[in-house]
Amino acid sequence: MARIGVFVCHCGENIARTVDVKKVVDAAAQLPGVAVASDYRYMCSEPGQRMIADTIRENRLTGLVVAACSPQMHEKTFRRAAASAGLNPYLVEMANIREHCSWVHENRDEATAKAIDIVSMMVAKVRQDEPLSSVKVPVTCRALVIGGGISGIEAALSIADSGVEVVLVEKEPSIGGHMAQLGETFPTLDCSQCILTPKMVEAAQHPNIRLMTYAEVEKLDGFVGNFKATIRRKARYVDADLCTGCGACLEKCPVKKVPSAFDENLGPRTAIYRPFPQAVPNKPVIDAAACLKLTKDACGICSKVCPTGAIKYDDAASVITEDFGAVIVATGYDVLAAAEFGEYGYGKYADVVTSLQFERMESASGPTGGKIIRPSDGAEPRSIVFIQCCGSRDEARGRPYCSKICCMYTAKHAMLYKHKVHDGQAYVFYIDVRAGGKNYEEFVRRAVEKDSALYLRGRVSHVYREGGKLVVKGVDTLAGEAVEVKADLVVLATAVTPRAGAVALAQTLGISYDTYGFYSEVHPKLRPVETSKAGVYLAGACSAPRDIPDAVASGAAAAAKALSILSAETLEREPTVARVNDATCVHCGNCIAACPYDAIEDFEVRDRAGNLIKVIARVNESVCQGCGVCVALCRSKSIDLAGFNDRQIYSQIDALSAW
Amino acid sequence: MIDTVRSRAAELLKSGEVSVVVGYREGRRRELAVPHFVRDVADVDALVLDPFCSGGLAVFATREAVSQGAAFVATPQDIRSLRVLVQEGQITSENVRIIGFACQAPGNPAGEIRLLEGSRLEDFDNVIECAADNNIAAEVARIMAMPPEERWRFWRAEFDKCVRCYACRAACPMCYCAECIADRNLPQWIETTARPRGNFAWNLIRAWHLAGRCTLCGACERACSEGIKLTLLNAMLAAEVRDAFDYVAGFGCADEAGVFASFKDSDKEEFLIDG
Fold first, then answer.
1. What are φ and ψ of residue A391, in 5° steps?
2. In this complex, do A590 and B260 lie within 8 Å of one another by their Cβ atoms?
3. CB–CB of B52/B2 below 8 Å?
4. Nearest to A404, CA basis, from A518, A321, A480, A506
5. Hey, are the CB atoms on B261 and A584 less than 8 Å from each other?
6. Which of A4, A111, A143, A655 has a CA that sits 20 to 30 A from residue A504's CA?
7. Is A307 helix (H, G, I), strand (E, B) or coil?
8. How far are the Cα atoms of A388, A408, A428, A542 from residue A437, in angstroms, in the given order?
9. What is the CATH number of domain A578-642?
10. SS3 B129
11. DSSP character at residue A575
């Protein structure tokens, strides 16, 4: 016979203010099957939990209803309390009389009546509950990191250092990401490559890290602890094992004018190329679209000059699948195509550049060797106008968000310009200067006070050419007047956007993304590196614009989260999973097709002699998330969800509605 | 024409492609053709084809029956039903052969019959419109034009007739469940007594279970002893599915999941706020 305990929580005043707790206790005591009903001020407190455990023991309770807050909040707490007293934790039900009742109602009588209804429903349900035990799943102790920028490198190194094997997949021929493109970094002005390349090399040489550059993740099957990733390795046309990185091919390649994406198209590269001299791995690839041998079957010089015979014109893409326990997504960002800014003359005037192009100019290894020039004639610019918020904080263009890094790098650009061109003048059009970060505000003040950058608060309406100069027309909202600045160079701080293809990758991985295409954290404050898919974590700017310190921190955080999965031999999972009734399943295939987790598969029912009796659907308990889509779809009701089965749901409805 | 049907049937049996041909023979009355199962070549002469061959033979396309190969004398709707059964994994298309026909006025002695080209299910990718579909579309429009109260009265009167004999279920090619939801009693989903609540529940749940699957073959309505307008009910849901998902049962590819088990980017999401 059922002996159910009902415990009603006051939640301080949260519940008791609106709900007459005593009345709820009295009503609960009258319900069939209820042996004990009592209340307490803070049920989740230590004494509250002890009271529950003691009552379970004293009254040999067979089920528990805690009328308190949302199960999200404290279901685990009370399940643990019940388990400590020897009651199966899945015989505990939460009646949510806080979020669903006291918080949303004002009338005390009505709220009390509703609380009684909610409690009755859960008492009816708990009478149908069956003890369940958690599902144990083995874990593959390997991590996949997608994206070899600074956050991906940091994540890979953190995991590898703790002794776990990592595969780092990068779609470009070299790891390094955007950070490799930068000149110097705010707020300390240390050279970006100088601090990055040691990390790149460390990642490449780490015994626990396997680099897979020029490769992309095509598919991710499986579930936390047991993912199976399909990775496509693009054709490099250079045998990485034979290549020594001597560079002879690069010198001799006759195709010398391919715009270099790494140099933001400011400089050329050859058809066989490595993105930059410090590339890791330092082994070139052939750009099949530009190579004369591959397009016209002419040339073949690289093959002739290669001392090790590493050139393979017949190389082809290959697809491999590997097992992983956790996945870190660190795919980074793009900057907004400046083509959107016709009014600023980008594309029309060579001397209007993006800030990433300016970074390349400023970089010692860049196409100008670190010299800041006007691309149109190579002259040193006497004045530069920096236009901030190009696309960011711009509701009209659909990007109301702040790109976060532009205020700082613009101050840095103004500063570095002054360091290189002492008599030059930098003007900065800004909306607000956002310098929230350690030593950031001081850095911006330095740009203004020491390096005499002229900050003008306001937007630029348009840029046009007059004589040899670019005329920037804008407004200074502090002075309240229109301004016109003649400049040699205009630099656009274009918005940080999600990577091209970010949405497609999110769909491949099964993680969620926001309106812009940035990946969504499961909780923006408390779970900032976790995605809605268990075992998949976020690092770096793929989830929001981030500067280097943030990107590194999130890389390390994602690694810590991944390690919490990978450090256990088995994972415990909730037993609230779907089960198929073998006798009545007719294998229509609806549930198999609809399952968002691919948790349902064909199962062959055979007799003892091994003869096939029939094929049915079977739920893989370790994959099932208990969402219930299959249950809703099954016409013959041949699937049920443990912990939420049809009888339980029906009994709840029956408790509420006297037919 | 019947000679063609008979010789096709004999051919299929002789070649071993199928072990049974499911067709029609004469009933006891002139206006009746009843299902006939030909397993022996000598038996093909009993096959008939006239406007009283009303369709619905796909109901015999069970996993067991088709496993050794089966041919069906089939209307366009039957062909579509067979395609849905393939889609739902109940039968495999290699085991199915079709002797297709279309009647321009089924049930009318003067109705003209023509044979359809093709033998395998894949040959009928374009069997789309048939006269019956258009008639029912007009009827759907008429009901939808009624004010809700009147529509309610209309269906209430229809369902009141139901005696819960489940003949509709027995005649339906799509009702292949081993255990019907109507027979489940833990919990009992559908009240079994023939009174309004249970009748509504049964007829609506059946219609829901056929949404996106019913090919409007009309077998249920013909089987109904009380003359409930079941095809109309199914046609209304078929119209909803077509409008919402651009999907008509029986035209999907064999490897495409059913409409409720799949998601397309083009699916309307009007139930979402701002969807």
1. 100, -25
2. yes
3. no
4. A518
5. no
6. A143
7. coil
8. 19, 10, 20, 20
9. 3.30.70.20
10. coil
11. S
Residue B274: predicted pLDDT: 56
Q: Give B-chain residues touching A588 at CB under 8 angstroms.
A: 88-90, 176, 258
Tens-place pLDDT, residues B8-59: 999 999 999 999 999 999 999 888 899 999 999 999 999 999 999 989 999 9
- Contact: A594, B90; criterion CB under 8 Å: no
The angle that helices A150-161 and A548-566 make with each other, rounded to 10 degrees, is 40
Q: What is the pLDDT of residue B273?
A: 63
A68: tokens are 């308190």
Task: Say what the ipTM of the complex is.
Answer: 0.91
CATH for A235-316, options being 3.30.70, 3.40.50, 1.10.287, 3.20.20:
3.30.70
Domain A335-497 CATH class label: alpha beta
Q: What is the pLDDT of residue A497?
A: 96
Tokens matching residue A289:
């679209």
What is the bridge-based pairing of β-strands A272-273 and A285-286? antiparallel
Evaluate whether A176 touches A136 at the Cβ level (below 8 Å): no
Q: A303: closest CA among A284, A275, A282, A276?
A: A284
Tokens of A639: 């699937």
CATH topology agreement for domains A143-229+321-332+502-572 and A335-497 = yes
**What does CATH list as the number for A143-229+321-332+502-572?**
3.50.50.60
What SS3 state is found at A204?
helix
Residues in chain A, pLDDT under 50: 659
In order of B241, B252, B257, B258, the CA distances from B248 in angstroms are 7, 7, 13, 10
Contact (CB<8Å) A588/B88: yes
- Does residue B128 carry a pLDDT above 60? no
Q: Which of A586, A587, A637 sits opposite B181 (nearest CB)?
A: A637
Helices (H), chain B: 2-15, 63-66, 76-87, 131-144, 148-160, 167-171, 196-210, 219-223, 230-245
Structural domain spans, chain A: 4-128, 143-229+321-332+502-572, 235-316, 335-497, 578-642
Q: B275 pLDDT band (50/70/90 cuts)?
A: very low
| Residue A593 near chain B (CB below 8 Å) | yes
Q: Does the A4-128 domain belong in CATH 3.40.50?
A: yes
- Out of B176, B189, B258, whose CB is closest to A586? B176
Taking only Cα atoms into account, the Rg of chain A, rounded to an integer number of angstroms, comes to 32
Q: For strands A258-259 and A63-68, give the pairing.
A: unpaired
- Indicate if the pLDDT at residue B126 is higher than 70: no
- What letter represents residue B102's amino acid? A
